[in-house]
Here is the input.
Amino acid sequence: MEDRAIIQLDHVSKSFTVRSGIFGGRKHMQVIGDLSLSIGKGEVLCLVGESGCGKTTTGKLIVGLIRPTSGRILFEGKDIWSMHNEEFKNYRKAVQIIHQDPYSSLNPVHRVYNILSAPLFRHGIVKNRSEAEEKVLELLDRVDLTPPRDFIYKYPHQLSGGQRQRVAIARSLTLNPKFIVADEAVSMLDVSIRLSIIELLRRLKEEMNVTFLFITHDLAMAKYFGWEGRIAVMYLGRIVEIGPTPRVIENPLHPYTKALLMAIPEADPQVTRNKKPMQLRSLDIPSLLNLPPGCSFNPRCPFWIEGTCDREVPDMYEPEKNHYVSCFLFKGK
Amino acid sequence: MVKEILNIENLFVEYSNIRGKVKAVRGVNLKLYKGENLALIGESGSGKTTLGTAIIRLLPSSGYIKEGRIVYKGNGNEYDISKFNEKDLRQFRWKEIAMVFQSALNSFNPVLKVWDQIYDTAKAHGINNRSFVRERAISLLRYVQLDPERVINSYPHELSGGMRQRVLIAMSLLLEPKILILDEPTTALDILTQRNIIELLRIIKADMGLSMIFISHDLSLAAELADRVAVMYAGAIVELGSVEDIFYRPKHPYTLGLIKAVPTVTAGFRELYSIPGSPPDLINLSPGCKFSPRCEYKISACEKDEPTLVEVGPDHFVACIRHKEINNGR
Here is the structure.
């Protein structure tokens, strides 16, 4: 696995400094705590968690938009923040991100042609307008904006949400990436549009052999897109469980994952009305400014062991093959 | 026969903007029965929020009711809400029908403490007895599982999203309304918080026996809470039926498409299917069925006249001329 990894996170932490109130001092907010993760070539890894758990920050760290406070991020075995210029440029070409909101991620004063051709010119892939146009038409065709000539000179506001997201996906493909971070790429879209975008991403994965980090709060979408891959469940900046998607869904190990699956409302009256939600000890999510000691889920966890869970952070245990969980209930199993 | 509390008759709502008239609600006929949960389901631009805000006459200034009646039946009388003036509305809103708006943070005034907002609401409806309001507010906040003393002295930003939503629900119950309209009550909340709000709404329903209208793009909320579901598309109701009919025996191709487009987590795999195309422009609507450009069941007759709702089973209505060919295939 290690030598086939395209992206590795090695004990990565990220903190932000925040001011509290007008007269308050500076505070340290740890968004990512000691995250280690390896993503294999051609894999789909779904990073699942609720808002504020650090999944978007993880995505930004991986594409090099922000620097970790400590730890290393490796692309094909090389630390991205000690790469020299040429290497860093290649890494930036190889790793792309699709943002959540297609309404704000496309420049409203640029036409589709300009949005898609700018990176092509910048990286010297095309030399003149006719080459660029040809390449842009090819990209639009690839993301099913057909006939491409109808779309190439449109402005973003002339497109629907789904069409905009297709343009954003086309932009992520301009430089033939090896790795794409899709950060809530379908969450803003209408239900009837979501699935067609997911299908498009899946097809691109097959055709171009791209590795995906699929970031979502929606377990159902993660299950649907990443059935052949793995799911990592994040809670307050840490991965609490990671394993093959079918195992995590069918045999969740961490109490937090279990609580999520037992709580999630589903579009099937019989299934959803028969759910027996887990009784948590507290409804409140601890603040990142004031994380509890030990396992960060312990103040809410009905299975907590006093004196253990509130003192130490549990290691990653492997109670079944390739299925890891950070919970003392599985220590020595 | 269950008693109806609200009867929307042939309602048309429009917005005027620079491009023309946006036909947001087109000819809606809908009844709400006493003590039932009705879900209005549809995508953005389907008219569901417009319909909800028209019922309590809180449409934005560019919007207006063009035609139709909204008949409220309470205290043995009938009132047409669409004819109310401002004074009537003040007597009516929150006392008879209350609404919890989408986006819990924006519904608050950020510089007022929760108590001041509650008291302002009460005063606006003519209740000036401070200690009475405070007592009622505290018991309601406790009822929605909040720590009343702490919450009442907090500013909105000091509360989490789930807590704010619970405060808004408590405030909506202040004047004991008979109907509660909730616009996307769980959207943008975390899963564990969503579950908590759903359980809370169940308890309120059981305790107070009020009628609720849920507005949501999220099918799972309807699956959780609705007795009946109205599916909206391009400003009209295309299918109306019991929650079982809608989820297990849909007869409109759009409903079928929506249900097949949503994956489930714990319910095992099912075949998913995406609806091609995108919703129509509500300014320049073509004649005929508005869904026909995206519909795989379309025949030439679909493009001629817009179908109206016909009864296809007990209390199950569909606006589709090809409803007999629609098999849910689940």
Residues 94 and 307 of chain B are 36 Å apart (CA to CA).
